[in-house]
Amino acid sequence: MRHDPIEIALLLIGGIGPILLLVRSLFARKRAYATWAKFAYALASVTGLIWLIVGFIVLEPRRLTPHSFSFLLALKYLCGGLTIGFALSVIMAGPCKKAASGGLFLSR
């Protein structure tokens, strides 16, 4: 097993970080997140967990054939990119504000 602490730390942050962001968006009291943002965080959490699991499998490549190793490595990078993309899209958009109860055009 390769003992690369940077890669292990990145796997743990990438696998657990989106779950924390999802929990924060679901239980935020001061900020209102849009439904698409919660869904994007849920997708980022799923792909982050896949990235974490596949990343730890790929750390021990002796038991894998070259074809399966390259497939798992490609899956790891794909899930990593999806996780980063989903999380960054919501982080850059930020939380949305709740609309007034009278509607946007009805209140004067």
Layout of helices and strands:
Layout lengths: L4 H22 L8 H24 L7 H28 L15
Helix pairs in contact: 1-2, 2-3
Explain this structure.
With 108 residues, the chain is mainly alpha-helical. It has one domain (5-93). Helices cover 69% and strands 0% of the residues. It has 3 helices and no strands. It has helices at residues 5-26, 35-58, 66-93. Helix 1 packs antiparallel against helix 2. It is elongated and about 50 Å long. Residues 102-108 have low confidence and may be disordered.
Kindly list the characteristics that best describe this protein.
108 residues, mainly alpha, 3 helices, elongated, disordered C terminus
Which whole number gives the mean pLDDT?
A: 85
Number of helices: 3
- What characteristic shape results from the CA principal axes? elongated
| Uncertain spans | 102-108
Main sheet properties: none
- The SSE string, one letter per element, is HHH
Count every beta strand, where a strand is a DSSP E run of 2 or more residues: 0
Assembly level: single chain
Secondary structure class reads: mainly alpha
Radius of gyration equals 19 Å
- Helicity, in percent? 55-70%
How many structural domains can be distinguished in the coordinates?
Answer: 1
